[in-house]
Predict the structure.
Amino acid sequence: MRLHGTMSINAEGRLTIGGCDTAGLVAEFGTPLYVFDEELIRQNCRAYRAAFMQDERIQGEVIYASKAFMTKAMARIIQEEGLGLDVVSGGELYTALEAGFDPARIYFHGNNKSPAELEMALAAGIGYFVVDNFTELHLLNGLAGERGVKASILLRITPGVEAHTHEYIQTGQIDSKFGSAISTGQALAIVEEALQLPHIDLKGLHCHIGSQIFELESYRYTVQVMLDFLAELRSRLGFTAEILNLGGGFGIYYAEGDEPASIAAYGQLVRESVLAGCEERDLPLPRLVVEPGRSIIGPAGTTLYTVGSVKEIPGVRTYIAVDGGMGDNPRPALYQSRYSALLANKADQPAEIVVSVAGKYCESGDMLIWDLAVPRTEPGDILAVFCTGAYNYSMAMNYNRVPRPAAVLVKDGQADLIIRRESYADLVQNDVIPERLKK
Ligand SMILES: Cc1ncc(COP(=O)(O)O)c(C=O)c1O
Ligand SMILES: N[C@@H](CCCC[NH3+])C(=O)O
C-alpha cells in the first residue's frame, strides 16, 4: 500500500496524516471527512516552482488551477507559496478575492463567461482573461471600453493534440467547445481580430490538452505545435507573444498501474522543449505559464468514511457501504476512476478479504472501489480513500439531500477546519415556500 505525503502508521496501528491520528480526526470532526495534508500541498507547490520558475534562461509562472479544489484557506496557501491562480467562474474568482488573493496574478478562464463575471473581473483588476471565442472577445472589448481600460488577454488555442493517460493522439480537433483550432484557420483569425480591437491587449496564447496525462511526450509535441503557430503569427501578422500558457493536466498516482513522471521531469522536458524550439525558430522566449490543479492537490487529500453495512453475497461479492459516496466523490461514477484505500483503524493488519466499497446514495452506480483487499471489516471501521484532493470537494453535490462533508487541514499534529460540514439547515436555506402553498 502506497502512503502519501506525511502519512504514517502509529504504534496503535492507525493511519496518521500530518501527525494527526485519523481516529482522533473522526472523533472530533465526524465522517465523511476530507483531510488535507498541508505539508504535501506546499511541497508540490515548491516542486512546481523549482521545476518551472528557477531557470535563469526562461521566465516561468506556475498558477494553480482552482477548479481542482478551492477554498479561502487554499487560496491563502497558494499565495504564500508564490503561485498565481487560474479561476474559471465568478464563484472561484469571488473566493480568491475574499481570501485576499492578489488580483494581478489571477487568470480568468472559461468558454462562456457572463457579462457579469467579466465586469466583476474587470472591476477587481485581474491580471489576464483567457479568451475562448469571438463572442467573448467582442464582449470583453466592449466592457473594457466602457471602463476606459484595456484588458490583457491570452487567446485559447486548440492545438489539435489530444492526450490520454498513456498516449497522445494528433487530431484535427475542430469539434471542441474550447478555444479556436489552428487547423481550421480560426486561431489565426481570432488573433488577427484581437490585435485590431482597441480595448484588448493581446499578451499571448493558451492551450490545454487534457487531464491526468502521464505521457510527457504529449507536452513536447504540444510545445512544437504552439511554437510553429507563434512563428506563423510572427511572419504573417508581425505579432510576438509575450506569454505562452501550456495549461495543466499533469497526472498523478491513484492506484496500481498509474506511473506518473515527477514534477521535476515534467518541468525539465517543457523548459527544454521551449528553449530548443524557440532557438530553432529564432523566436524570442515567451514567459512560460503552466496551470496544474490535480498534481498539486490530488495526493494531498484523503477522505475518511465510516463503514456501515457489510453485506456478503456468498460466492459472489462482499459489499461494504460507507457513509458517503458519489456525492463527495463523483469521479468513479463519472469516469470509472480507480482509487486505493485502507482501513485507517487497522492500518497495520494484513489483508484477509476482498470487498467492494459502495456509497450510500440511491444509485447502483454509486460504487467507490471495486475489489479492495482489506483486513476483516466490521461496521464502525474507518476507511481512508487516498488521493481525493482534486475534483472531489470541488465537484461534490447534494444528491439525495446529503450534506457535503467538512474538510480539515492537518500539519504537525494540528488539525484546523477549513470547510464546515453542511447541516440540514444549510440544505434548506435557499428553499422558498410560495405564499399560496402556505395555507
Ligand atoms: C484550462 C485548464 N487549465 C488547467 C486545468 C487543470 O488540469 P489538472 O487539474 O489536470 O492539472 C484544466 C483541467 O483540466 C483546464 O481545463
Ligand atoms: N474533473 C475532471 C477533470 C477535468 C478537469 C477540468 N478541465 C476529473 O475529475 O478528473
